[in-house]
Every structure is written in structure tokens, then in C-alpha cells.
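Hello,

Our lab assistant flagged a job as stuck in the queue for most of the afternoon. It eventually completed. Since we weren't sure the result was trustworthy after the delay, we are filing this so someone can double-check. Below is the sequence as submitted and the structure that was eventually returned. Let us know if re-running is recommended.
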Amino acid sequence: MLLRSRFISFFALLLALALQAACAQAEPLAGPTGLKNRYEELQGELASNQFKRPIYLNSSEGSGAVKGDIYAVLPYPFAQVREALGTPENWCDILILHLNTKYCRLSAPQGKTLLRMHVGKKIEQDLSDTYRVDFNYRGGANGADYLSSTMQADKGPLDTSDYRIQIEAIPLPEGRSFLHLTYSYSYGMASKLALRAYLMTVGRDKVGFTIAKRGAGGEPQYVDGTRATVERNTMRYYMAIDAYLAGLVAPPEQRLEKRLETWFAATEQYPRQLHEVDRAAYLSMKRNEYARQQKPAE
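-- returned structure --
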């Protein structure tokens, strides 16, 4: 039983690591005009949905690739969003809010902007027990009416590859902004088998947000499998962005606590999909991981 438990835990970790990013098959950025058109097209979905907030989530799975997209109206002025999300120095403070992000460090080797990330389980871990993924940060547009940026990693655990996290945003009236977050990744046979093992064991009861069908009584039956995992992590990253922006209203010394509390409270609104640890465990783990992240680079 102990060996089987370790085996399942190993594959669950591989799945979590594989789903920390996104792939080269992601759709091109829409640009300011395209994103504005998308905002107009999604008015109905943004106004009324199961999330009870102005967001729209979509996912897709193809041959050897999986992708999640989220569109959201943010209650923050575009200048604030542009400064926060268009600055690579801020992204480690955003990414560390996610349960599986254990460490993040910004560096600039050979003139490149690099985010060194360590990802792992939903518990505290030594960095030696985590997996390192190096993201190249590529800034895009950073103007008065449009923001874009991309983080890309060529390799991940097992035979996953072409990781990409991509954002774009435009201003909206009344001091709001419209955000599009995409993340996807490519995978081969080894990681496909790891995903299958996870989904047949500890991940078998986990679901996403898309309603695949409804039962006889009208109750929603949510998508499961790989798409469900992508949707859960897409939501967690969106919530990390939102929590980071929400923390800016607090004094600098209180911002971390504000972000942690905001992120955890947001995930608990969807316990079926996102509940993993209790509040005390999350706060303690993230305080320690954030403190480690602030120490001089190893």
C-alpha cells in the first residue's frame, strides 16, 4: 500500500508540474481591436454566469496539446493593470500565490529576462524536491490602450514542452480593464500516461467548470479529465492576478497578507473545483515560501 501511495503521489506531482504553464500552439494575441471585439461578443456571458463575477472560461484539448483561456473584467484602472502586469519584477509575487508554485526568482542572463520557477506539491517542500522550470519573459505592447506579454519555457517535466503563459489587456470605461489570460502546453506519451494514472486515482473525482451536460433533475455535470485540470489551474492563475491587484490598496507591509487572504477566499467560492487545503495551512505555507523567495539568490 505504501508503494502504491508513493506511485500515485509521484504521478499527481508530475501532473501538477505539467500544468504550470502553456504551449506554442496557443492562438495569436488578439491585439487591441480584436480584444475589444471579443469583449463585445462576450457581454452576455460576462453579465450572467455560474461564477457570479464577470469572467468567461474556456478550454480545449487537441492532439498532444491542451489550452485554457479566461476573459475577465477587472475592477482596476488600466494604468494600474499595465504597471502591475507589464513589469516582469512583479510576476514572481503573482505566481507564488498559486498552490503549486514553491519559488520564483527573476534574473537577466545574457540580456534575457528569465523567471526561474520551482513547482511542486500542495505542501511545503525543500527546493531540491521540486521541479525547476525556466520561463523566458517576453514583453509585448505596453501602451496607453493595450498591454501584452508572454512567458515561455521550452521544456518541462517528463516530455512536456512549449510552455506558455500569455496575457493581454485593454482599458474599459469607468476605471475598469478587460483581461485575456491564456495558458497551454504540449505533451508526449510519457506525460500522457502520467496524466492518465492521475485521473484514474487521486484525480478521478475532480471536475472543471464547463458544464458538459445536465442530469435528469437539471443538475450540472461538469467536464472532467485533462480539461478539468486545465480549467482549475486557469482559474487559480486568474485569481492570482486579481489578488495581486487587490493587494495594491494596502500599505506595502500589508500587501502580502491581503493577497494571500484574497486568493484563498476566492478559491473557496468554488470548493467543488478548487478546495485543496485549509486556510491556516495555505497561509502558513505561502508565508514561508514568500520569505524564502526574498532571500539572496542561491
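-- support follow-up --
The delay was a queue issue, not a problem with the job. The result is valid. Strands lie at 55-62, 65-74, 101-107, 114-119, 131-142, 147-155, 161-172, 176-186, 211-214, 220-222. The longest helix spans residues 225-247.
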